[in-house]
């Protein structure tokens, strides 16, 4: 197969996976998803001779870099809008959430958001993108042992954040909160 055919096959097979990967990381900024995905496949086209046999983890690595560029650009635009005084509060568009507006499982996302970007990424690659550790290593551009260690540490830090948030979680019931009687004190 020629490099062009390999690229075409990778594009057909992985376009939607890359789109979902990008969309999940842009936190509702859907207008930028297509732009970032187009940049990912532009880079892949330029480097089509470098496409590995299993290109999805490699494409995720390219997407990480394109997302970093997009996030930097978004930050620059946001700062410019703020300097111009054209922010949402100046136009009275504040939205107050109702107490029942919390989505199920939002506490998990809150705990995840408290982690470093590196920890979030390794956890997302395994949970959202369902990559194995070898594929995570390719996406992160590191060795398998390093990826495994990063995942282990990220999971440990996420567990600590979840435990720290424990009483705030809606799943904590009053039965969970009552102290148990010690044996022999009964």
TrEMBL record:
Domain RNA polymerase sigma-70 region: 20-76
Name under which the protein is recorded: RNA polymerase sigma factor
Presence of keyword Transcription: yes
Record domain RNA polymerase sigma factor 70 region 4 type: where: 107-158
Keywords: Sigma factor, Transcription, Transcription regulation
Family: Belongs to the sigma-70 factor family. ECF subfamily.
Organism this protein belongs to: Streptomyces longisporus
Annotated spans, Disordered: 164-186
SUPFAM superfamilies hit by this protein: Sigma2 domain of RNA polymerase sigma factors, Sigma3 and sigma4 domains of RNA polymerase sigma factors
């Amino acid at each position: 197969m020629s490099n062009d055919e390999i690229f075409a096959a990778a594009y057909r097979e992985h376009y939607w996976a890359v789109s979902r990967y990008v969309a999940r990381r842009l936190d509702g900024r859907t207008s930028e998803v297509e732009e970032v995905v187009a940049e990912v496949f532009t880079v892949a086209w330029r480097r089509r001779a470098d496409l590995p046999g299993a290109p999805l983890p490699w494409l995720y690595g390219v997407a990480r870099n394109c997302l970093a560029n997009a996030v930097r650009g978004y930050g620059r635009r946001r700062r410019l809008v703020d300097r111009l005084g054209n922010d949402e509060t100046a136009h009275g568009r504040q939205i107050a959430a109702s107490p029942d507006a919390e989505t199920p499982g939002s506490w998990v996302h809150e705990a995840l958001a408290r982690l470093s970007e590196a920890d979030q990424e390794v956890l997302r690659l395994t949970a959202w993108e369902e990559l194995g550790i070898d594929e995570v290593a390719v996406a992160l551009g590191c060795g398998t042992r390093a990826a495994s260690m990063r995942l282990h540490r990220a999971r440990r830090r996420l567990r600590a954040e979840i435990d720290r948030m424990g009483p705030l979680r809606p799943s904590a019931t009053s039965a969970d909160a009552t102290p148990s009687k010690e044996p022999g004190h009964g």
